[in-house]
Every structure is written in structure tokens, then in C-alpha cells.
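Escalated from tier 1: 2-acetamido-2-deoxy-beta-D-glucopyranose holo job.
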Amino acid sequence: MPFPHLAARYKRLLLKHLPVLVAGVLAGYIIGCNKLGIRGLLNLSQDMGGCHSNEPVADNSRPRAALVALVRNRELLGMRMAVRQIEDRFNRNYNYPYIFVNDQEFTEEFKEGIRALTNAEVSFGTLDSESWQVPEWINQTLYEEEKRTATYLHGGKDSYRKMCRFQSGYLHKHPLVADLDYYWRIEPDVEYYCDIDYDPFVYMRENGYKYGWTIAMPEFMPTVRTLWNTTMEFVNANQGLVAQNNMAEWLANGDAYNGCHFWSNFEIVDLSFYRSSTYQMFFDHLDRAGGFFYERWGDAPVHSIAAALFLNASQIHYFNDIGYYHPTILYCPQGSSTKGRCVCDEDKAFIHNTACTVRYKEVRQKIVEPEAKELAHTGPLVDFALSVEPKSQLRDANEVK
Ligand SMILES: *[C@@H]1O[C@H](CO)[C@@H](O)[C@H](O)[C@H]1NC(C)=O
Ligand SMILES: *[C@@H]1O[C@H](CO)[C@@H](O)[C@H](O)[C@H]1NC(C)=O
Ligand SMILES: *[C@@H]1O[C@H](CO)[C@@H](O)[C@H](O)[C@H]1NC(C)=O
Ligand SMILES: *[C@@H]1O[C@H](CO)[C@@H](O)[C@H](O)[C@H]1NC(C)=O
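Tier 2 regenerated the structure:
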């Protein structure tokens, strides 16, 4: 060592002051990190950055979560049917709040009709005009032309497109939803066939899942003609945003989109995903491109493409234990027509395993569980991708005006 005298001197100093140093570091830790420390008390909104640990911490708190629906006054009966089932199968034991939003004021009849079904807190809200409009950059000539010539279902409708845009980019920002950590989307006329005897929100949190789904199927391609290319523009300009272990392979047939998407009328989502700058940038890019209007991009493919590209495969969860119906498709867990805590007619559940579900399982297994055994096919394989049945017809009840 070139300066032994200095080293010796620092050693002496260090030993002399060690107790003070230790006390100082501890004090700094307490003041800086304890939320009841001085800084915390002086300013409760202060960011405690630097104190966040990457260690998984058991969180016994109740998730800030709610069941959320976009619904119209005239859908009261269907909404009551859905809430009745959700209460019976799940929420009577958990009492998560409900949030209903509408582009019109809810009637007293609607509010009373819902409140009578549950002890949980229920909130009703309307949409603001920004979230429910045709943006000013949309070329009206082109848009009118598309509405006039579209042959797909709801092709002529403003409201269906506004709904898809709202669910894609604005529902998670609605003031009633903005404070939630998780939401579970519900809709009129949906049915739940199984007792859900655990808390899916806690389950998502404990496993680090950001997106949960139960039915996957292909989109009717005329509604998403340029969605994939528009997505690829975004991806190429923002390559760092794509997750390392993404599920792009689930979506791509060579250079083209295969139409696979999660049917987002059911989705349980960690909303930090939709609030992330990545998702926001992606939505803005799509919104600017205009395909919500020049075509009829659905929130289902938009959410699904985002989840598949910007989340790791291990952050997506298939709730294959939740028997679910949305007009006119139902999913039954395997074996649930004869045993277990479901009553679900498997013969009618003709999408046990759509081509998109099978492909999802294969791709995910390759990424997340490469060591797992060959996946067991659990039912008749119905290849939607090869049929021309427009999925959009199945979404009739999903439409808002
Ligand atoms: C509290 O902290 C926030 C974030 O650092 C800051 O924006 C705000 O001005 C602070 N408020 C007061 C009263 O110091
Ligand atoms: C809108 O599109 C039409 C048809 O392509 C085009 O002729 C027109 O110039 C466009 N309008 C604007 C304001 O860009
Ligand atoms: C999308 O991009 C591919 C590859 O660049 C191209 O061949 C195709 O024509 C594009 N499709 C549309 C609808 O623009
Ligand atoms: C995906 O996993 C990689 C590797 O574990 C990690 O670095 C990255 O942050 C993850 N991405 C997201 C979106 O969580």
C-alpha cells in the first residue's frame, strides 16, 4: 500500500467513530423509510423512493379492487341478473364494491335495482366528453365512408366504436376507478357457473399477475385490418418497451395477426398495467392512427395485444377454473358438468378449447414452464380461426347504444 500511514489513520478514525456511524445509518433508515417518520408525518404524499424493497412482502391488506361495468339504464334486468350471480357465487363472502358507469345519468330505478341485491358499496358515474367522443383528428369523410360500407356487425355505429375506445383507453382513468389497484370487468347478462371460493384479486397480487382472462378467441378480421401493422409501427419505434418474455408468438402468424385475443368482457386486471406509460403510449399511438373509427378496433384485441407484448408471460393468468358465460359463448371448467362446485353444461360449452386457447397454452408453456409435460387437451378443439363466424355477432349484448 503506497500510503500506509494514511490507512492506519483512517482505521483509527473508523474504529473511533464506528458507533456514531452505525447509529447515523440506523437513524437515516428510520427517518427515511418509516412511513410514520418525520418526513412522512410532515408530508404524507411524499414519495418514499429509495426505501422500496424488491423483496416480496406478504401483504395482508385488502386489495383496492372493484367489480366494474359500463352499462345503460335499459340494461337493468340483465345487470341485475349478473350481479345476483356474482353475489351468490363470490361476492356475498367478499363484499367488493361495484362501480357502474354510463354515458347518461343513471336513473333512480337503476340504482335502487342494483343496491337491493348487495350489501357491498355501489357507485354510479357518468363519462366525461373527452372519453366519449370522436377525436378531432378523425377525418369525417373517411369515417362516414367506413360506416356506410362496413359489412361487419355494428359497422354503422358511432356508439359501439366510442365504447371500444373508452374501454381501451379511459375506463381505468375514470374518477371512480382511478384509485383502484385491480378491477374485474362485468357486464349485463353474464353468468358465473362456479363457486369462486377464493379471492381472485389477492390471488393475482400474490402471484404477480397483471392480466387475468377466461375465454380466448379470434377476432373478426375486417374490424382490425391495420391494427397489427399499427402495433408494429409502435413496437419498432419503442423496442425497449417489449417485455423480455412476451407472448407475441401467441398473436403472430408470420408477419400477420392471427386475431387471437382475450374476450375482455371478463378481465381481472392489475390497473398499474393500464396506467403504465407503456400502455398509455401504446393507446395514444393507436388512437392517433384512427382505427377505432376507420375500422372498429375492439378493446379486447387492444388489451390482449398490449398484454402479450408488454407483459411477461408469467404475468398473465388463465382463470380456467371460472365457469363463465357471455352471450352467446360459455366456458366450463373440465368435468364441471358432473362434479365439483360448478353447474356448467359442457356439451353447450363449445369453446372448451378454442384454437386461441390451445395456442396460448402452448406458447405460455414454452416460455414459462418449459419443463412441464405435454399439455393435455381438455376438450374438442374448435378451430375458430378457420371458421368465418364473426365473433362480433357474439358481442351484441356488449354494445352501448
Ligand atoms: C409534499 O410532497 C409532494 C411530493 O414530493 C410535493 O409535491 C408537495 O408540494 C409537498 N407538500 C408540502 C406541503 O410540502
Ligand atoms: C379526408 O379524407 C379525404 C378522402 O381521403 C380527403 O380527400 C380529404 O382531403 C381529407 N380531409 C382532411 C381534412 O384531411
Ligand atoms: C402490413 O405490413 C405488411 C408487412 O410490412 C404488409 O405486407 C401489409 O400489406 C401491411 N398490411 C396493411 C393492411 O397495411
Ligand atoms: C420481464 O422479465 C424480465 C426478466 O425477469 C424483467 O427484467 C422485466 O422487468 C420483466 N418485464 C415486466 C414488464 O415486468
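Confidence is low (pLDDT under 50) at residues 24-54, 371-401.
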